[in-house]
Specification:
By secondary structure, this protein is α+β, with helices and mostly antiparallel strands. The protein has helices spanning about 5-25, 40-55, 55-90, 95, 110, 125-145, 170-175, 180-210, 260-270, 280-285, 305-310, 355-365, 380-405, 415-425, 430-459; strands at about 30, 35-40, 150-160, 165-170, 215-220, 220-225, 225-230, 245-250, 255-260, 275-280, 290-295, 300, 320-325, 330-335, 335-340, 340-345, 345-350, 375-380. The strands form 7 sheets. It has a 4-stranded antiparallel beta sheet. A 4-stranded antiparallel beta sheet has the order 12-11-13-14. It has a two-stranded antiparallel sheet with strand order 5-18.
Length: about 450
């Protein structure tokens, strides 16, 4: 039975149990427009207890919390501007990502836009991730509010249709009367909690991966490619029927190559002198796909294994190649080609390039231990993959929430954080309001421009 069926069954049961619970406790349920709030005092008791018991640790920690707020704000502003520039100027990025930049987090979002980059996002993942993120984020706000003698009226959960959120309600009047630094600490506390969760679950993800996974194959990025001069092609590129096939045969200097529709279109659109084509290599002719797990009797667990095994053969040798492709084992008989006296299959491997700066640090945090060109097999079977993907989503969404919440935009914690920071520097309420409005509208326009780009491509 597919896990999706279990997941959907769990979803139905969760909705039913939640509805029954809220109906029985409907006196605690209040409606505010489309939003329903379920208030409880249980969380208040926990917040009061933690803030009092650990006050000696939390008081000096506020300086780190505020520093993290500024670091996250600088990081997300830089990332948003860079992303907007690349997203809007690139003819391919929006098509590759497929999902719009403003996409709510809901179960099976990976399936809705046909995005094969992301692992599956089950309802089970969603409810666990929301619980970890929302509870830690909101409780941190409440704990630092109480630490600074600001009363917390209630805690609870919000329901907007199927979407859930946690909330903590500090006294707004006391919050406004508090000094700037305590307000900054309270506002940044939620994102600081998400950073802590990112680090904790990032370590857990690494430990689990090391314990439960082992390299069992090698992925190749592409069949062998070569550039050919457009003037050497026997027929004009403009006469190629781009709707005829996914792969298009191209004859240059009496040799047949193959290319894609997008490659031809890109060459024509940019008036390039060369066209990138696939060599008619052994791997290409065999339609080799998946992770290479074995060659003849030799197990392949790394690029070095693959290179060493091929080096032991001569051009013209016939080898048996086994691959694993989406859980299916395939076997291929491949006759090795000659490349300057070296036996080759005709496959390519891309380098594991990393982004620089803050993006590079984050990438390293979650990816260095897992080489994308290596196929790792779980010693726990599908359950190991399930747990790994769950931990991966927890890490990714925690850091994403931390960054986005410090965006200096009105609806986020970063909006008020930015306003208070400008006010503390300028001592001018008018200047702070102007800066706050400018920042809010700047990022609204930026996000709108990216959404328009997505709309024009997909609608």
């Amino acid at each position: 039975m597919s896990f999706v069926l279990y997941d959907i069954t769990f979803l139905v049961l969760f909705v039913l149990i939640t509805f029954i619970f809220l109906y029985i406790r409907r006196n605690n349920l209040q409606r505010q427009g489309l939003l329903y709030l379920y208030r409880t005092k249980i969380g208040v008791k926990i917040i009061n207890s933690v803030s009092k018991k650990y006050s000696k640790i939390l008081n000096p920690l506020q300086y780190l919390v505020v520093f993290s707020g500024y670091a996250l704000m600088i990081g997300i502003v830089w990332m948003m501007i860079k992303l907007a520039y690349v997203y809007i100027s690139s003819p391919y990025l929006a098509k590759a990502i497929r999902a719009p930049v403003l996409t709510p987090l809901f179960p099976y979002v990976d399936k809705l836009f046909g995005n094969n980059i992301l692992p599956p996002f089950y309802f089970t993942y969603w409810i666990i991730v929301i619980a970890i993120i929302a509870v830690s984020h909101e409780f941190a706000h409440g704990i630092f509010a109480r630490l600074n003698k600001i009363k917390v009226h209630s805690t609870g959960f919000g329901f907007l249709g199927p979407f859930l959120a946690a909330f903590v309600e500090p006294d707004e009047k006391q919050m406004e009367k508090a000094k700037t630094f305590p307000q900054l600490a309270i506002l940044a506390a939620g994102t600081f909690a998400n950073i802590v969760m990112t680090l904790l679950f990032g370590i857990l993800l690494w430990l689990f991966f090391v314990a439960a996974f082992a390299p069992s194959g090698v992925y190749f990025s592409s069949y062998a490619l070569s550039p050919v001069n457009v003037t050497d092609i026997s027929s004009s590129l403009s006469s190629v029927n781009l709707s005829s096939a996914s792969l298009i045969p191209i004859v240059a200097k009496n040799t047949t190559f193959y290319t894609t529709q997008s490659s031809v279109q890109y060459t024509l659109d940019n008036n390039l002198s060369e066209l990138l084509v696939y060599d008619n290599s052994p791997a290409f002719k065999a339609n080799l796909s998946g992770a290479i797990t074995q060659i003849d009797e030799t197990k392949i667990t790394s690029y070095n294994d693959l290179n060493k095994t091929l080096s032991s053969h001569s051009p013209g040798d016939v080898i048996n190649v086994k691959t694993l492709d989406n859980g299916k084992e395939n076997s291929y008989e491949i006759k090795l080609a000659d490349n300057n006296g070296r036996a080759v299959m005709g496959i390519m491997f891309s380098g594991n390039a990393k982004p620089s700066g803050l993006l590079g640090w984050f990438y390293s945090l979650i990816s260095d231990f897992k080489n994308p060109m290596v196929y790792y097999q779980s010693s726990m079977g599908d359950f190991g993959i399930f747990i790994y993907n769950l931990l991966w989503w927890i890490v990714i969404i925690n850091i994403s929430v931390a960054l986005m919440n410090m965006l200096p935009l009105g609806i986020f914690d970063g909006g008020k954080f930015f306003y208070l920071s400008v006010l503390a520097i300028t001592r001018s309420k008018k200047a702070s309001e102007i800066a706050y409005k400018f920042s809010t509208w700047f990022f609204i326009i930026l996000l709108a421009a990216m959404m328009i780009k997505w709309f024009l491509i997909f609608i």
